[in-house]
Every structure is written in C-alpha cells, then in structure tokens.
Design brief:
2 domains, 9 helices, alpha+beta, 449 residues, Galactose-bd-like_sf, nine-stranded mixed sheet, Jelly Rolls, elongated, Purple Acid Phosphatase, chain A, domain 2, signal, F5/8 type C domain-containing protein
Length: 449
Amino acid sequence: MRLNASAHPPLLRGGLRTLLLTGVAALALVGALLMAWPERAGAATDPLISRGKPATASSTESSSLSAKNAFDGDPATRWASTEGKDPQWIRVDLGSLATVSRVRLTWEAAYARAYRVEVSADGAAWTALATEAAGNGGVDDWTGLSGKGRYLRVQGTARGTSYGYSLFEAEVYGAVDGGPPPGGSFTVVAAGDIAAQCTASDSGCAHPKTAALAQRIDPKFYLTMGDNQYDDARLSDYRAYYDKSWGAFKARTRPVPGNHETYDPAGPLAGYKSYFGSIAYPQGKSYYSFDEGNWHFVALDSNSFDQAAQLNWLKADLAANTRQCVAAYWHHPLYSSGGHGNDPVSKPVWKILYAAKADLVLNGHDHHYERFAPQNPEGRATTDGIVEIVGGMGGAEPYPIEEVQPNSQKRISGPYGVVKLDFTDSGYGWTYVATDGQVKDTSPKYSCH
C-alpha cells in the first residue's frame, strides 16, 4: 500500500513506512515535506477528471467486471482482467489533452506487483509517469506527477497473485486544457410536429398545452424536431399559432425544419427562417451544432440529406468535436413504427454518426412517441449503437402505431406531451411527460460511448 509516491521517491517511497512508526513526529515531518514541495500539496487540490469517462482494458474476467467500473466512483464495483496472464492494461479517455498531477489506485485482492502509469496524446505512443516494482496492493497514491496526454493507462507487468489484475477505482486528477472539464447536469425539453392551426381558445388545441408543460419544466433549452408549424409554415402562420404557444421561449429554442417548412409558397423554409432568424441559422446554414457541458449537439436539416454539402459539413463537424457525448436531431426518422414508417433518407447520416460513436438521435415526423434500443445503421441491436427517440407529439393530430419495428422498446400514441431529457457529463436518460403532468414512460440510463 502506497500512501504517497511521487517524482520525489527517496524519502516518501522508502522512508514513509518508517516515519509512520514515529507517530506525531512523522505527521509533522510529512507536513514539512509538503510545504517544501508545494507542487505536491497543490496536486491534492486538482480536480478529478476521470470520473465516468470512457474506459477500455486488454481483457475482462466477465461482463460485470468491465473497465468502466474503475472510473464510476462506486467503491463496490471493480474491473478485473482475465486470470493468470501478463501483461494486462486498463486505460481511460479523458476527452481532451490534460495535465495529470495525481493518480490514485485502489486495488482489489488481485493487485499488481509491478506496473507503470502512462499517458499518451494519441493512444499509440506512451510516456511513463510512474513505475512500481514492488507493489503490495491496497491504495497506491501517486502525487506530484507531471505529464500531459488525453489517455492514461495503468500497464500491469507482473501480478501480485495467481489471479489477474483488479481495481476498485482508478482516479486521475489534473487540469484539462482550456480549463476544468465541462461540468454539471442539465435538462432539455424536446418535441416535434407542434403547432396546428389553432389557439388556446379552442379546448381541443394541443400545442398551447405542450408549451405550458414545457415551460413548467424550465429546461436549459428546447429542441424542436421539425414541422414546427402547420400546414404550409408561412411566416403569418408562425406568428398566428406557434408564436402564441412555443414562441414564449423562442430565444431558448434550438429548432430544425421539417417537411412542412418546405411547403411555404414564399419558398422552402422562408417562413421558418424569417420567424427564427439567426436562432435557426446560427452558422449561416439550416444545420448547425453547439455544445453544452460535455455534450455536442448537432441540428440537421433532413430535407437536404441528399446534398453532399451537409454530409461533408457533418463529417468535419464531428471530426472537430472535443466533447465526450454526441446527440443529433432532425425531422425524418430512420426507424419508426408509425404511419410514415422507416425513412432511408437518414441512413447516410446514421452511418456518419455511428462511425463517430454518437449516442443519441431525436426525430419527429410520425405523430407518436417511441424509443428504440441501441442499434447500428442497419437496424441491428448492439451495445455501441445509437439510441433513437421519435417525439412527434408536440401538438399535431396523433398517428396510430402501424408496423412495430425491431428494437422498438416503447410506443405511445394518443397523449400529447414532450420528451424531458436529463444529461450528465457521462450519460443521459429521459421521460415522456404528458400534458397532464403524468410520466408515461421512463427510459433506461445510458452511458456515453
């Protein structure tokens, strides 16, 4: 067990156990040493930057002992490698370049007698930060480190037992380039297919009710998944209907257009663009992206998925992304159990997103609520797949469920409502909330890829 180990090893690595025997005198001496080496004392105050980040390992003993367990903050879960084999490693992706000052390892009974703590900018070339040649398990707390990389790896070279390697927790402290890592949870409200040509004076008009619900939730921002205004999405219609309900939080809305926005006699998307202005065209196009916390959001125009310009932009946008988690939203769903059914126009976009390890897609078009298990662009269920939500119950007349698609987990047609999404730095989940405030569906909790 190593209480303190650093770039200053002679006294604290070999002598600390002896010093501890002297009781109070030892504590005084350790305090003096920390004062003498201020970078070590400062390291203890650096933030934890590895919690919940994506992790991989050379092997796992079982699916319940995966690499992510060493970075989840739960002392009861652990990673374990296969038994009886050297070498083995576990690594974490910190999301961007970071300066690492401290690494704290909490070993299970299957510990490493010899190992290296290494960093890498690209996951290929590794630099050692610390080396252990006579480990005895317990807690190894490496402080006073100074290394830079996006990836950190613990490379076990000799087992301390006949079993494998097993860590309850691997904690990395330091500073992410550009400041502390994105932090904090936030809520988003999403809906598509919203403003029928009616107002609150009509008791059967649904979009004022979904708007009131959305406003009560008071999220960080709102997403619309197209067909925001029926039937032809003229500017006059936006002003007469949408603006009287969802327009109340227009400044906090991040919209995308649907097919009804293309029907405007003044020209495709004319009323949509005039009403939302730079909110809908923040980057000069009908598609754009933005960041919130550790999430990258991509707003797309599925009316022009057949144009290379948007697809090329999407590839470049995802390549430049520095956030760990990715969500995308547009109007036409690739998979749907509703009246419109599957729309293959979205498949090229799914392929790009899947290759970039995107997590979540939100769509409208079909007027029902539906959630799908993670799947790949070909519709095969897979743990590294994209989760899709159809949220077309914002106010337009509901469509019945017709042909249930593979991987569809829940379908609701009838109760109008919104999707309330809760995002964290490393995952997400959501509820479907009806206009009467009742939660009609609760999703599983997902971790980002």
